[in-house]
Amino acid sequence: MSISSGGRFFTVALFAVTFSVTPILTERIGLYEDTDLMEILDVNNFYDKVINGNTSFVVEFYNAFCGHCMRFATPYKEFGLQVYGWRKYVKVGVIDCSNQSNSQTCRNYEVMAYPTVRYFPPHPPSNYIGEDFFRSMNPQTMKTVLINKLIETQKNGNLSFLCDIQPYKNNLVTLDSDNLLTFVIIDTADNKVAQELIIEYCPVKKVKIIYALNNNTALVEQFKPISYPSLYRVTNNNQIVLLASGNNKTLFTEFINSDLHTAHLTPFSIIDITTKIYNMLFSRGEMPKDNAIVYLSDLEATMRYSLDHEVILRNAISGDALSALKSYLELLIEYFPTSIRGKKFLKVISEHMSNSESVSGEELGNFINKYELFLNPYVTKLKWIGCEGSHPMYRRYPCGLWTLFHTLTVQASTKNLQAFNGEQVLNTIAGYVKHFFGCTECSEHFMQMTTTIKNNVSSFDDAVLWLWSAHNQVNQRLAGDVSEDPMHPKILFPLKAHCETCRQNDEWNKTEVLAYLKRMYSTISIKQTPNDNVNIEPLNMIASKHLIDDSKYIVFDEEEWKIDVSTCMISYILSCLVLMVLFYLLVIKKRCKKNKYIYFILGKV
């Protein structure tokens, strides 16, 4: 009985711990919706749709927190709309690699940067990771790239169900009795209007469009085009009728549709992108929170996402990347504001890799998950508070990463330990950004700025100010960008309302700025939700606190020791019950057998 009770309690406790540490990673954020007319891929459907599907696929692997991914989303959606009518032959899809459940899929396809776009032909080998697809902010450019991919795929014997988009080689146009209408487009090799029209009209039965190059001498002499491309209709009695010429796809479409209407055929319905209204509005709820407050919940959510997602996305971590990861963990061990369990958790991960020359991302992820359950290292519920955006696509992890980096530089300056110097702190941060931060463009910009560290940083305080200056440069560059949260505009900080003495005559007073940054990032709020009434606490208290009998610190004691205390109480009660039962069986019942009279128990009179 006691064993089953204890087992049930342990199961419930383990269940509670498991679900208490995963909320920020399982929530679907995403930059795309089903209404965007593209395939939303995930771990459950990727293989069936992309690898086992009958169509070609263009897939964007993206990170919902990546600013460049946000900017790329709009042209990619337009590209998806423009080729939506081609979905019998090729589909456009996306997979969110920032979603924890998709991590293994992104790792399997060796996605090292975001956004990454790949092309997959129908039924590729199971180990095929796709062919790089040129991404552009111009949807028409991507459409041209896709046409070239389809041409190559068909040339290799695939996509046989797609109408012929290869150049016509015959000297004469042969009419097919199954077709009511036959069109011929003569064009140059670098133009793709003909193939585009062939793909779009391929679903229309009894219509054939032939594409010939201007180097097909026999056809050119027969059709005598004046300019390229030129559109012709070949009648049933082999008469050649010029319909249109010039690089004007819209005009070609109008003539083809007109002939289809005359022949009582239903024209192909081409999607006009201008009629598609994007729902980019979102609910504007509460007013922006005070960004001058640093929340432990944001810091822990950020640290967990960096270790439990970004780092382990790599198939293998070795060389400079492994060295950068080891240094990052050492920096967190020294300066991250955490509980004793949290520090132990970081040390366990660091020791696990200390003698390794290469680490598997999958194996490291399993190791981290195992010790998260075992040590329960997080003080908070891992909810975004100060870094929560007005919409899930905004702020969150990028905001948290800046907050984490500022906190580490300030804590290093405050502790002034020998483990790192100011330059090393920044280089360690740069190492993480270079090798693990999911936004490729952001990483490249940051690494360009780090070239100034060597000549400008000679102390811990210099490191604090360098990172502050770099952050403001990024804010200036991204102000008004599509990745900017309209409710949290990217502005130079600190605001005058938060630090009046930090500016003098529109110039920064760096002495005051340094003092402000140290106050802000060495004082951490332990609120679990925005409406908590828990006080702000100095960062060093958080790091050293354990079992202090003070109501102000109960939040930490309950979070850190709740399972241990509950386990002890249950064990104590069960032990007492077992002893009482044993006493009854071994003593009382034995004595009752010797004397059958009940008054023996009560005592003789």
UniProtKB/TrEMBL annotation:
Keywords: Disulfide bond, FAD, Flavoprotein, Glycoprotein, Membrane, Oxidoreductase, Signal, Transmembrane, Transmembrane helix. Its cofactor is FAD. Coiled coil: none annotated. InterPro entries: ERV/ALR_sulphydryl_oxid_sf, ERV/ALR_sulphydryl_oxidase, QSOX_FAD-bd_dom, QSOX_FAD-bd_sf, Sulfhydryl_oxidase, Thioredoxin-like_sf, Thioredoxin_CS, Thioredoxin_domain. It is an enzyme of class 1 (oxidoreductase). Residues 1-26 form the signal peptide. Residues 390-492 form the ERV/ALR sulfhydryl oxidase domain. One of its GO terms (biological process) is protein folding. Its EC number is 1.8.3.2. SUPFAM superfamilies: FAD-dependent thiol oxidase (SSF69000), Thioredoxin-like (SSF52833). Pfam families: Evr1_Alr, FAD_SOX, Thioredoxin. One of its GO terms (molecular function) is flavin-dependent sulfhydryl oxidase activity. The chain crosses the membrane at residues 569-588. It catalyses: 2 R'C(R)SH + O2 = R'C(R)S-S(R)CR' + H2O2. Residues 10-152 form the Thioredoxin domain. GO terms for cellular component: extracellular space; Golgi membrane. Belongs to the quiescin-sulfhydryl oxidase (QSOX) family. This is Sulfhydryl oxidase. It comes from Cinara cedri.
